[in-house]
Amino acid sequence: MTATGRWRAHLDGARWATTSRRRGHPDDPAPEAESLPRLHDLDLAELGVHPPLPAPAFERDADHRIEAAVGGDDAVVIVAGPRLGGSTHALARAARLLLGDHRIVRPDPAALAGSAPLTGPADPALLAALAEPADGTDGVGVVVWLDAVGPALLAALHHARPPRGVRVLATADAALLHPDITPDEPGPGVTLVRLPDGLSASEVARAAPTIGTATVGARLGELVVDRKPARTVLVPGLDEPGRAWRPARLGEARTGAAARAAVLRAAVDWDRLGVPHALPTPLLARLALAYARDGVADDDRDTVPGVDDLGRAVEALVTERSRRSGAPVLRRLLLADGVHHVPTGLLTAAADALGDEGWTPPARFGEIVGDVLDAPEARSRRRGVGMLALARGFDDLATVLLRPPPDRAAPQATTPDELYRLGVARLQSGRAAEARSWFGAVLEATPDDGSARALRARAAFWLGLDRDADPARRREHLQLVVRDGPPRDASDAGLLLAGLERDAGRFDAQRGCLRAAVASARRAEDPAREAEAALDLAHLDRNSRRTDAARAGYEGVLELVTGDSPAAAAAARALTELDADEDEDEDEDEDRDGEAADGFVPDAVPEQRQDEADHRPSQRSPRASL
């Protein structure tokens, strides 16, 4: 019998017992519920809490709300919090305390989530069971325990009406509560309790005797759960001294190792995304091939695993057991439409913490998910999946699925920081026009009152690099960077502004921009950058026949950088020319200076009037920092 079939049998048992009582046979046992264990017979680990457990457990700020919900009248209680935030632990403690004498059934949420990845709703049989109205007298007291439900199942629980006598207790990742992912609010008879992202100051104080030193904002699971075994499974050798994982070397030992790593990474990243609960075999093979090719060096393509290698790797992972829990590394589920796979939950939690160490999905991951969501029946889910990808930190995938502003489909609930991340991801993928749309949205979503100064300056910097933009708008963006940006970006923006002012024939304004660039580079403690800006300023002074200022500028450049640098060589050459021929006419001076100029120096304009200016646009793009 499938997981859904067993659960429906339990629900039928509860309804059967209710009917028996109405017919005057209250002592007749329910055929399924009688065989279920009681809550107080199970420990926390059997309810999904990762060992080791804090003992004795300390009181959480939300415990009283969870206990009030579990002890209340609502048939469905959902506790939502971040991964490893302690949601399962808090709900399990409350359930054992208040409903310990209840029978419990623990269906696998991965098997109840529906068989169509990304697009389909939860299992139709599950939806039918949850939608039946509650009527009759009290039943036998059955608790349905659902740990770590996904979006489809969470949406179904928001409107669930289980039979009388059946309580549904569920945990979910708080990221799934985003309105673009789970749009509906909980209905009547459903209580939703949200846990904060991390421990509060009072929780840290109460936790000290149990778990030792903790910091405000830390997650409970990150402090008490040993993730090292899971990390070792994901990336062998990562935690061993002197060894570090490199994606390009996964296949160097043998093809089998590369196949195992590709399958495991594909399954774990799919689970991290959190949209489906189980990965159908054809899609697992497609993703694993992409990961296998991404994990092999270009000069070692002979070790790329084939389909047979990946199949053998799946079989090995299904039979492999975790050293600590004894659970399979990769679970196999036989659903109505075929075989699906899902990794053990602790692997997903461990992989979340590996992003800074190279655990990032390859570009093909986003392409494949995008292809799946390009089907006509799936396009309505693109926005929700894109927002979930953004919440998970899968920025490349999010940019594939989310359209940039001002498209009406652009996400309205996206934070300015997320808009900036989307712009950076699009810029890195070579789509500069789309990136500029996201950066423009950052400026529209943030007030110019100093509250988001750094973020606005970063977005404005990238907009200021667009040489095809309207010069007035570009000037506004660069001025914002000079005013509010970090010193290095402010210095580059000053140089770009100087070029705009030169092209407009406003040479006094150009001189002010170059001075600002010099000052910003000095604040950044970057002599090379300061010398670059000072050289441009000296060239401008020379062309303007400010010989003394130009000479001082060139000498300052030589004090900042060595003679081997291009700036020092140009300054030394310019000083030699000044010493040799200070009285040459203006045209000859400007011709020679143009050979050493760096693109921001104006051509000869005798009267320096804007209507007479005729200059080439600068071809120079200063280095910028994110």
TrEMBL record:
Biased composition regions of type Acidic residues, renumbered to the chain: 578-593
Instruction: Quote the biased-composition stretches of kind Basic and acidic residues, using this chain's numbering.
Output: 606-617
Parts of the chain that traverse the membrane: none
- Residue ranges of region Disordered? 1-37, 576-626
Q: What is the name listed in the Swiss-Prot or TrEMBL entry for this protein?
A: Tetratricopeptide repeat protein
Origin organism lineage? Bacteria, Bacillati, Actinomycetota, Actinomycetes, Pseudonocardiales
